[in-house]
Amino acid sequence: MTTVTLDEAKLHLRVDQDFEDDYITSLILAAEGHISMYLGDDLPDPMPAPIKAAVLLLVGDLFENRERQGDRTLTEGTAYTLLLAPYRSMSVV
Hints:
Elements: H1 6-13, H2 21-39, H3 49-64, H4 78-84
Helix pairs in contact: 1-3, 2-3, 3-4
Protein name: DNA packaging protein
């Protein structure tokens, strides 16, 4: 189950049509999965606004750069890192 809704993602992406709904939903799942692994824990429910903003930033990046290849380094943006830093589990494994 996603915690960022399709409607929230479409509003963020400024997408009005429905023909990419399945694709956008898959991006939400990918972004939430990545952020959960990055944080080292399950996403909290309810999701704090900074984490939701980071999910939307990542969804937007994946949507806009859907054909990105290995010719450029993919790095996380400063805003993304700043939004997630307070929620990241720093336990030693």
